[in-house]
Amino acid sequence: MNPEILIDLVTKTMPFGKYKGKLLCDIPEHYLVWLHGKGFPEGKLGMWLSTLYEIRLNGLEDILRELKTRYTAKKG
């Protein structure tokens, strides 16, 4: 997996819908499950969301927490 994808998950925001403006990594799991059933959008956003779904499904959220801390500190 490209590490840039993980960085994108902690730095990019949701562009539409109920969670517009939230960091992708902060989108609730139930919404990702719903999107998985409905079908992820095309393009980079869909790839990011499906990757996030797989991370959550496999219990790997700690990776994102560490990256979020690191990249949020750099930003501020």
TrEMBL record:
InterPro entries per the UniProt record, alphabetical: QSregVF_b (IPR024530)
Protein name in the entry: DUF3820 family protein
